[in-house]
Amino acid sequence: MFLYNSIYEYGEAEYLVEKSRFIAHAMPVESLEEAKAYAASVREEYRDATHNVPAIIVGAKQEVQWASDDGEPGGTSGLPMLKMIAGEGLTNLAVVVTRYFGGIKLGTGGLARAYTAAARLGLDAAGRCEVMDSTLLRYEFDYSYLSKLQNLAGEGKFELTDPEYSNVVRAGLRCLTEYENEVRGIMTNLTSGQAVLLSEERGIIRVRKTAK
């Protein structure tokens, strides 16, 4: 089941305007606490920068939105970034734009445009994705089924993860939750019911969107 739109992975990008250097950092997160911790880590890493401006959105329906101007004139940096991100329908992410001042003032409009442009480049570098419900089924089975299972995984219904090889094979089958019963049936039919289900775990999976 579809949960929300977010970014696929960490992304970083640079934007230069009037000798000021803007570095955007975009990170997927699962909570406000994780987002603020990430923003703090960027601030620490770039503590020599003029500003480190964060914008955070968390919650499947964008319930929590938070930004700071970090010393820039009020409403010229964090809020424009936040509005842009929210306008794209994205959530569960933190974007921090680091600025090294180049000596030329940009004005309030110029600042808003620069921070927004840098943040968008960071999102582009991270990639957009759909976050979906997923199920991880971990099985134990005989080696004779491994090759066929790998071929079936290539058809895209599930992903074969973290295989362990001993006298038998232990591996995970990760799939969208909506395909769980189908994947269970595939495993039962392939092994004539001989595969042993060791564990099952619910989680999320990120399905990357391709550029149009």
Describe the structure.
There is one protein chain. This protein is of the alpha+beta class and 212 residues long. 30% of the residues lie in helices and 40% in strands. It has helices spanning 32-45, 78-87, 107-126, 146-153, 180-190, and strands at 2-7, 11-17, 20-28, 51-58, 64-67, 93-100, 128-141, 159-165, 169-176, 196-208. The radius of gyration is 22 Å and the shape is elongated.
Helices, strands, pairings?
Layout: E1 2-7, E2 11-17, E3 20-28, H1 32-45, E4 51-58, E5 64-67, H2 78-87, E6 93-100, H3 107-126, E7 128-141, H4 146-153, E8 159-165, E9 169-176, H5 180-190, E10 196-208
Antiparallel strand pairs: 1-7, 2-3, 3-6, 4-5, 4-6, 7-9, 7-10, 8-9
Helix pairs in contact: 2-3
Summary?
The protein has helices spanning 32-45, 78-87, 107-126, 146-153, 180-190, and strands at 2-7, 11-17, 20-28, 51-58, 64-67, 93-100, 128-141, 159-165, 169-176, 196-208. It is α+β, with helices and mostly antiparallel strands and 212 residues long.
Main CATH class of the largest domain:
Alpha Beta
Number of helices in the DSSP assignment? 5
Average pLDDT for all residues: 95
Level-2 CATH architecture of the largest domain: 2-Layer Sandwich
Structural class: alpha+beta
Distance between the termini: 23 Å
- Number-wise, the strands total 10
Instruction: Look at the structure and name the CATH superfamily of the largest domain.
Output: Impact, N-terminal domain
Write the H/E string, N to C: EEEHEEHEHEHEEHE
State the low-pLDDT regions, or none: none
General shape: elongated
